[in-house]
Design brief:
The complex is a heterodimer of chains A (570) and B (226).
Chain A (H helix, E strand, L loop, with lengths): L2 H5 L14 E7 L4 H12 L6 E8 L3 H13 L3 E6 L3 H12 L4 E4 L4 E3 L3 H11 L3 E5 L2 E3 L6 E2 L6 H4 L10 E3 L14 H13 L2 E4 L6 E3 L15 H11 L7 E6 L2 H11 L2 E2 L12 E7 L10 H12 L4 E5 L4 H5 L4 H14 L2 E4 L2 H9 L5 E2 L18 E5 L17 H10 L4 E5 L11 E3 L8 H6 L3 E4 L8 H8 L3 E4 L7 E2 L23 H18 L4 H11 L2 H11 L5
Parallel strand pairs in A: 1-2, 1-4, 2-3, 6-10, 7-11, 12-13, 12-14, 14-15, 15-16, 16-17, 18-19, 18-21, 19-20, 21-22, 22-23
Antiparallel strand pairs in A: 4-9, 5-11, 7-8
Helix pairs in contact in A: 2-3, 10-12, 14-17
Chain B lengths: L3 E7 L3 H12 L6 E7 L6 H7 L7 E5 L6 H11 L4 E4 L5 E2 L3 H11 L5 E3 L2 E4 L5 E5 L6 H5 L11 E4 H6 L12 H11 L5 E2 L6 E4 L5 H6 L10
Parallel strand pairs in B: 1-2, 1-4, 2-3, 6-10, 7-11
Antiparallel strand pairs in B: 4-9, 5-11, 6-9, 7-8
The chains are: A alpha/beta (570), B alpha/beta (226).
Chain lengths: 570, 226
Amino acid sequence: MTTLEVLMPEKNGAKFLEDPLVSMIVPIYDIPEMTLKKCLMSLEEQDYKNLEVICVLDGPNRALEGVALSFQKRSDKFTLLEIEHGGACAARNAGFKVSKGQIVSFFNSDYMAKPGMVRLWVDALQSNPDCGFVYGGYEYGSSRRWAYPSKPFDAWQLQIANYIDCGFPLWRKYVVDWDVECRSLQDWDFWLRVVKTHNVKGFYLGRDYSFIAEPPRPKGLSDDSSNNWIDRVNYIKGKNGIPTRDILVTSLGAANHAVEIAKLIGADFRDDTFDKPSDYKALYMIGFYMKPTDGGLNEHARRLALFKEKYPKAKRVIHFVGADIYWLRKFPYDSLKYLAGALKLSTDHILSENQAAHDELLDMGIPSDIVPIPSYSEWEVKPLPETFKVALYLVPSGYGSGESDFDKYSYDMTLSIVRGMPDVQFTSYGKGGKDVKYPNLKDYGLIPRDKWPDYVYANSCLLRLCRHDTLPMASCEFLMAGRNVVTNIPMEFAQTIHTNGRTELNEWDRYSEGLNLYNWPDTKKKIIQTIRQMRKIGNPIASSASGFWTEKLKKQDYISKIRELCDAKS
Amino acid sequence: MPKVSFVMPTRNRLEWIGESISSNLAQTVEDIELVIVNDASDDGTKEFLDEWAAKFSRVKIIHNEQRMGGGRSRNIGMQAASSDIIATCDDDDLSCDTRAELIIKHFDLNPKSELVTFPYVSIGYCNEKLEEFDGEPFDHEGFLNGGNTYFSNPSSAVRKSSALELGGYEPETDDETDDIQFLRKWVKAGKKVDFQPGYFVNFHRVLPNSMMVKHRGWDPNWLKPK
């Protein structure tokens, strides 16, 4: 018995998966010898043993052939294949034909694999059987060492722009032919067809960067200064049957929201690279969430200038949502004056969600039109659940947690209500309830969009304590579903807790007075009394509240309003 | 028969009483009882106690028809208690889960002890820790001469028989000084106050109008955590 067999005792039920053969197909054409050498060395030094590297020489080149041959001599992992010059796609197809691996990667010859890259890929593929391929970010090997982090998989967003590099691996059964007719953006075309043909998704490696790529060469194909970028993008879109849309939605701080809005109004969404030319008719930005510490006091104006520069012909519409205005209030007067001017110069329309937000913006010299954002789902009044349940949004507080950097959702106070009402059942959603163990609190964590209506209908009311808010979608949804809302933010048909306490040290926080701890016992008592009262009498105003908000938040009104402002046809 | 009776007078503290009761019921020893004297609350505390707390077999609830004040309510609770050892509680404080266990241990080891006080931790509105009070042995002579010494009423336990012998708490004192008056009576009568160091037994909530703020000169705004 070998040591390895002792370490993997199958009788204990622990069965290690075998290492599948991985084929790395490297097309080689017109690169410096040293670059190729670095690439092949990085593959030779991978600790993953069951690996074959197929170097496909795209047309005769003595020097590069010599490099590849020297590796072939050293190790039987390497195979050299020479074809007639036909472009990278033809070379990849030829390499794939002779490869035998269960997992295939079309690795570029100017990449340098990081140590352990193949092992990382294989582990990710084997442990995520629902994913057809894995991908992630990579670094650029320039002196500045910048990186492209990519983003979590979303098939819809892949249709707008590519975020999956061609070098990432996939199972052999999902490989599609590389299109030799495709002059550029072949990798985008490839992944689009992989996803469409086999209906598979990718596993995002997150911060585990796989390889180091050479920065785009001047006049090379991936150099974005090439002047026919829009035509190239449209060619790929047309070829894959992707509609070209005339509005681009983007966001600073509310990306998930913005993706849903983009789908709703039939627009594209992008939040990453803006350095490529485009021909959108309008740029619609939802959320302008910037703190004074994010890049300086005049960062807002700088971003606006950037949008104007990148989208000179597009209509630019900005929609202030959520805590954008809270942070604007933290800016000094001079910056606000500068921002108000910049907004006037570089946007066509400024929108706010409700009257309170409109007034606040006007205080800062920013006039806006009120356009409330509708819910993505349809709601109707349904009977309240048998047991009285209160829903909470729990978000970890504290700067740096990445969730609520100014404790927007009053985490400690919300939990204080849960402790104060041991006879009432609470449910929570959001990231903050994970480690909270109270007998009367059940945590549902992050609720996916399709499960959200079930959650809302399973609760009798929502308790939402906020330091600052405009028109919270969750509150609207609870009201439309015939549920009650207890909140400190004035809102039609919600049970508003009038906190009227002493003003906090920071007089700008217009809603947080009652959440000042000085007045918290009184506020807490009022909240507890309100919730108890609701448990007693149910929700007699359900149908009028639902009717009011359903009428106010009509999807079609919103869509046509935005399309009209963006000057786009529907 | 329970070994320790927790006696808690309350008036209009709907916001704190829920967690306070929960903490007193969550003791590591089972044989305790909780006597709650509702001193004519009108903020919904009565309904809460009747609807929820009354369901627990270990909870005894007494409603005062008229407002009696803290001292009288404490005496009413003490008389209704079925155990000889009374743990004094305030309606906005939380007890540690080992409180009853520590009290029983103390009276088992010191059968002659009549009144014992323990260290405590002060907390703010959202149960954030403010300060630890480790305490010190009670200085009887110094106390009678008007000196400062450590005593925390809501972290104490007293023998029911001894307290009632002295007439209990003064009926006419206001809610905030009833404990000090009782203590003075106790020490003047020549009785001992014991001190058990080492373990915190309760969390004493500091409210803006509480003694801590008034007498120690704390700024209520300072209570804000973080």
